[in-house]
Amino acid sequence: MKVAVGGPLKVAFRPWVEGLENVPAEGPAILASNHLSFSDSFFLPAVLDRKVTFIAKAEYFTTPGVKGRLTAAFFKGVGQLPVDRSGARGAGEAAIRSGIEVLERGELFGIYPEGTRSPDGRLYRGKPGGLARVALATGAPVVPVAMIDTEKIQPPGKVVPKLMRPGIRIGKPLDFSRYQGMEHDRFVLRAVTDEVMYEIMKLSGQEYVDMYATAMKRQLADAAKAEKEADKAARAALARAEKQQAEKQQAEKEKAEKDEQTGEPRT
User: Fold this and answer.
1) What CA–CA distance (Å, rounded) separates 227 from 245?
2) CB atoms within 10 A of CB 60
3) Nearest-CA neighbor of 60 among 72, 76, 74?
4) Residue 228: is its pLDDT beyond 80?
5) Which of 35, 89, 204, 213 has the least CB density, counted as fewest CB within 10 Å?
């Protein structure tokens, strides 16, 4: 896949990279990146010599039919790991288990601390569960990564990417061994996550928003729904007003015709 996908990707988009030397040549490490586009999971592995394993929803691997099998083969080829989101605690626990397994094999594990793509290009608060717990449970260093301009190449909802040059800026590894054995302390988890997000913010130059991206997406969805309902209500009110005006004009016309037939003067 590095040849079939990564090669053409680098030729077509010519991504620039800074800090490539900060990725360990061997041994386990966590690549913690901002998340601007679906294409992030392709550009980052394309510029590295080592395999990077990300997590993906299990539905990508279980869809029936020819298209489903091709999709599953593609995601497996580019290093995506299926995560079953069912169960008591859903994707969070599954992602943690998957990340630990990847790192115990001495490989690179890719994760997006924001938990979802940024809805507007800004950097959102990192979720403390997955990244911090995996880092503290394994002792693996965390390498902060900033994807630059990938949201302009393939914005959410767009299938055909725009040909332009994205960037990848890789920071120095962060060591959290001082917190070893404290992966169940929520204050420690928050401190680790915030430190990583601060490094990503410095690398990316993004504006930081101290709220979760999922919450912002809900706000935007609610606002769009409210705007749509308000527009629908306004159009309905306008239609009623136009109907009433038409009925009034018709009544006046009928009265005028009746007055003319009876010879009564118009008022």
Assistant:
1) 27
2) 16
3) 72
4) yes
5) 89
